[in-house]
Amino acid sequence: MKREHQEAAAGGDRRGGGGGNWYAAAEQEKGKALMGTDDGVDELLAALGYKVRSSDMADVAQKLEQLEMAMGSSAAANDDALLAHLAFDTVHYNPSDLSNWVDNILSELNAPPPLPQPPPPPPADDPLSLQFDLPPAVTEQYTIGTVDLPDGSPCKPADVDELQPEASTASSGWLISQSGHQPEVAKSLRDRKRLKVCSSPPSSTITADAATAAAAQQVVIVDSQEAGIRLVHALMACAEAVQKENLKAAGAIVKQISVLAASQGGAMRKVAGYFAEALARRIYRPQPPRGMGCSSTVESAALDDMLHHHFYESCPYLKFAHFTANQAILEAFAGFRRVHVVDFGMRQGLQWPALLQALALRQGGPPSFRLTGIGPPQPDNSDALQEVGWKLAQLAKTIRVDFRYRGFVAASLADLDPYMLLGPEADGGGVEDDEPEVVAVNSILELHRLLARPGALEKVLGTIRAVRPVIVTVVEQEANHNGRAFLDRFTEALHYYSTMFDSLEGGASPPAAVEVGGHDQAMAEIYLGRQIYNVVACEGAERTERHETLPQWRARMSRTGFDSVPIGSNAFKQASMLLALFSGGEGYRVEENDGCLTLGWHTRPLIATSAWRAAGDPLSTSASCRTASS
Amino acid sequence: MAGSNEINANESKMAVPLNTWVLISNFKLAYNMLRRPDGTFDRHLAEFLDRKVSANATPVNGVVSFDVLIDRSHNLLARIYRPAPATAAGSVPLLTDLYQPPSTDPFPVIIFFHGGSFAHSSSNSAIYDSLCRRFVSLCDAVVISVNYRRAPEYKYPCAYDDGWAALNWASAVPWLHNGKESKPRVFLAGDSSGGNIAHHVAVRAAESGIEIAGNILLNSMFGGNHRTESEKRLDGKYFVTIQDRDWYWKAYLPEGADRDHPACNPFGPNGVKLEGLPFTKSLVIVAGLDLVQDWQLAYAEGLKKAGHFVKVVYREQATIGFYLLPNTNHFYEVMDEIKEFIQANL
């Protein structure tokens, strides 16, 4: 009966464009569905975001059944505790990896329940102003607040360049904490689970394919008005003319754009302005004014830092980056007495007060903390890098964390060698010599620059591997601004920055910064404008804003011998709750993507955090499995 | 108790392909963890677990999608799906191309409300992105998937209000108009809670003189205080329990309301009379292993008694969620029914 139906349908149906093809495709699909696939992953579930090997399907089903029965019997016994434990205390990782996700829950079921412990009390005699701001739904597991860097410095350099980054003003970071009261046993259990999650092959198969497949062209239209559409159309037409090297036509259109842009309001007008300016430079190629050029200079480095700080204050993207990276670092450092963070982009060290604070509050006491900060050459021999380190040392002293700092000036990360980063291990004699020092490498919006010079990224990834870190945290813009064709880059960038600018308009800074909100936003727009300029007007080694997407970074990292360390639901939840503190925060969305977290505006992810470890590294492996000694 | 769970697992396993069983059981497990006994919902964990996909203006199997902010005050987003515009192969369509009618012939505009019992999923959930793309390919439709506000944070009537806003928005969009007509040929569609929303938006449309070409209700979510025979017989047998249905209604309905509230039970004691209203034609699809079926069949009866056209498609061996994976006859034959219904009423 089934067969007759299909034949009749296939024969008789010619209506509509999709008619004939529909049935052929449907049959093919159905055949695939019934037979499974060769390379192992169930294609139908993969299309819905779940990676399960066909050969594992029965096993996963059996585990689901087991869970069903366990939960069923506890429900019958009116035991809400189990369900609550599973829901609340369990940290979930990478739901796409269904088999491991289910295993994770099963192991939680079989593990002894955690002893209820009170959270560590906030240090009452702390000179810092620690504000613990608990959103309504939170329990004692989460302590969320802000940490301020101490003001002022007794050793100000003699000449203060007016372009010095405003590091002396208090900068607030999002405080992180461990899921506080889990006993040590549970912690190593969690690490073993995360390790297991890392090593499942389906991840690498899928990501390799995803990277080679065309990246999704994400379009979010926030202003459906006719004028906005015409403006975008004009920008695209201009870019197309530039790609075809029809500069006369391009020049004519770019003039129209300013007219159209003037009639627009808000974000679209500003974005159009920056894109039009970048297009104009490309068309007419005059000398760029100071500070807006393609080549980064020593002067522009300081300006960069200042703008970066304003971007940090005006919207949550960098705070999210620091927060999620810190969470991954904190988890990787669990149980170790000597830890070392290498920061590839030290700037004003905005990320580190929160990590220091979390380490100070760690169960069993803080580790010895070493920080290596990398930064570009600064103008006037001023030593911003050292100054930041000094301030952090002050903070560490007040919260009683043993802290050592070293700054490295490097024009490019590719100039670094492993021995520079590792340095002498033992600073004092005695007990410390026996404790291994574990390293975290942290890169916030730095790796993409390396793509401007062939071989540079590979060298840096090699250097990272040589340092044998327990965790590598990478944050990058979630966009492909590095396509070969100019028009593709332009289109991607237009959609990306339109969404970014819209979020600046829509999501104002938290109440604390409201009085300088306008100023922050204006500076943040300039910060983004410089990126737009670089993507559109520059080429070759000067085009450093070579953003790539998560699938692309995954492919690179896994090719170079790194495994993904999934970021869990605890970090996700806390990041989401912190976003609620931003007024206009309704539009911000945190999403989980195959072990990585992204922050976006509405449905468009704009920044992505991922964590990595060296594949098959015995030190990393044993490090993660270590049970802590208190 | 453990014994009966085992029987339930075996029964449901026999009713659906293994990968479907795994998919729906996975949702069931996740959802059990998200619903708290006190009526609150672990929204953050829900968003963490939900598999989402981005919109894509690059054609995939001849379909493009993009997101639109319909209403800034509520952050009401919708994902628009449409046949790929006829531009050079492989290139990304220009924004202006996306905003052209897909055809000079009449084409359906399907306003789709995703399921999730009013609490789960989003318009960018992978399962619904997949389904909406199918609808486009099925009948060259433009599909507007509405990201309505969800319970328990947003109770009745928020979901209906958002549906109504989407309908009004779509009615005013020039490129959705059909040929010489000054309005689109709108079908309202939804599964589970989405079906319920489609009904209530259709009622508002009928009351306001907005013409709807047809309603498509897939395993739609209705209920009432009374426990029907199918609820009692199928409780816990095929992924769904009476207890979880009750939880979702409590989360959606106003404080203190019971399940005879008209939102839940439109033809119950508190229902609105539909006689004489220009209410649209309905296609009501019922799964024979869905414990809510008696309410869905009663709904269809209610429409008939009020003088409105309704076609019931009863799939005896189908469970909930059969339309999520293209691996059964239920899937393909129901898609055929939907296509036929749309083409007959275009």
From TrEMBL, chain A:
GO terms for biological process: gibberellic acid mediated signaling pathway. This is DELLA protein. Pfam families: DELLA, GRAS. It is found in: Nucleus. The lineage of its organism: Eukaryota, Viridiplantae, Streptophyta, Embryophyta, Tracheophyta. Keywords: Gibberellin signaling pathway, Nucleus, Transcription, Transcription regulation. One of its GO terms (cellular component) is nucleus. The DELLA motif is required for its GA-induced degradation. Transcriptional regulator that acts as a repressor of the gibberellin (GA) signaling pathway. Probably acts by participating in large multiprotein complexes that repress transcription of GA-inducible genes. A motif (VHIID) lies at residues 339-343. Residues 537-613 are annotated as: SAW. Coiled coil: none annotated. Residues 387-419 are annotated as: Leucine repeat II (LRII). Residues 1-24, 166-189 are annotated as: Disordered.
